[in-house]
Amino acid sequence: MRARLVGRRAAERRFRLAGAAAIGLAIASLAVLLVSIAWNGLSAFRTTEIRLDVDLAPQALGLPDGLSAADLPAALPGADYRGPLRAALEALFPDATDRRMRRDLSALLSRGASEDVQRALEKNPALLGRRVSLWLPADDEVDLARKGGIARAVPESERRLSDDQLGWIDALRAEGRLRSVFNWRFLTSGDSREPELAGLWGALAGSFLTLVVCLVIVFPLGISAAVYLEEFAPRGRWTDLIEVNINNLAAVPSIVFGLLGLAVFLDVASLPRSTPVVGGMTLALMTLPTIIIAGRAAIQAVPPSIREAARGLGASPLQVVTHHVLPLALPGILTGTIIGMGRALGETAPLLMIGMVAFIVDVPHRFTDAATALPVQIFLWADSPERAFVEKTSGAILVLLGFLVLMNAAAIALRRRFERRW
């Protein structure tokens, strides 16, 4: 007996150690994942700018002399901004004499620098005709060089930046014309082929509009179905068949719902492709079983004594549900809904099937505008060949994880706010 007792205690210790090791391994794996994403992604929130003294004379911009203030806004989009920018760079480095060196020198600036100059003139027309000092976005390779992403020890033929360009970058840094600032463009602009100009705002707007459509559809339908199945549906073969199918649909791969959305909403209903309304309806199909299951579990958790007391006071079955059962089940229903919406926020496969993988530059404002979503934007950037999109991808993942954490925190807060103990 003593030997068996010793053996049982030893087996219990081994089981505890195995459980602790499994938990430790899971925590370590999660920590490695988060640290690697943060290590690559935090740099996406910083960008590099170059300060240039730009001549904004009308002749340099290709604008006619004597242009009135009323005609200036219409003339600015057609002005030549690249010429003054090249001239400003060549004034700093007069040793760039041949064509190749001047081309490499101009490549230090982002293509979006011209748009920044135009916006500065639109914001302050008094700058026209003056030489002003402007901080302008640098090219993504310059940004990588400042962040240490360029191996200077390798031969020049194996680098994206030449020796002359690296020397010019060092000279700009020594003269105080190179700085690192918070990358507001990453959070406030749409997608772009240029990594230093690409932003998340278009994808965030598309995800928001898509989730709004999904929530408007799935919340009333899911709660209504859960209430009917738990409180009103007669127990029988058909009810059991519906319950089994709902449980099976919750485990169906998400890409199947994408194929269903493609067949029904695009091919049959002829709804516009790559729009939040179609994306939200497709995600609603995927999320609906989860909301129904969570709603039923929350309704089942309400004590039967609540129903019996309400019926004893003369309440009708509908009054029992609306006045007593649903208010008490609301914390669980809201928690399940938010968790389901969080799953919808992170889904990519259904949206790929309905065409929301398109390259969208403009920020969507309506439910029928062409749009993409945040996980799809991450997929697009991860497939881009430019090295600067690596940090953009990790930065977008950090933003997505932040939204998921906020949604789960909201679910916990709502549950604690409305939860009642019996």
Which CATH architecture of the largest domain?
A: Orthogonal Bundle
Structural class computed from helices and strand pairing? mainly alpha
Name of the level-1 CATH class of the largest domain: Mainly Alpha
| Estimated radius of gyration | 30 Å
Order of helices and strands: HEHHHHHEHHEHHHHHHHHHH
Question: Ends: how far apart?
Answer: 45 Å
Strand order, sheet with most strands = 2-1-3
Low-confidence stretches: none
Largest sheet: 3 strands, antiparallel
Fraction of residues in helix: 55-70%
Share of residues in strands:
5-15%
* Strand segment tally: 3
Structurally, the number of domains stands at 2
Q: What's the total helix number?
A: 18
Which homologous superfamily in CATH is the superfamily of the largest domain? MetI-like
Question: What average pLDDT do the residues reach?
Answer: 89
Characterization of this structure:
The chain has 422 residues and is mainly alpha-helical. It has two domains: 46-182, no CATH class; 201-418, MetI-like (MetI-like fold), CATH 1.10.3720. It contains 18 helices and three strands. A three-stranded antiparallel sheet has the order 2-1-3. The chain is elongated and about 90 Å long. The two termini are 45 Å apart. The model has no long low-confidence stretch (mean pLDDT 89).
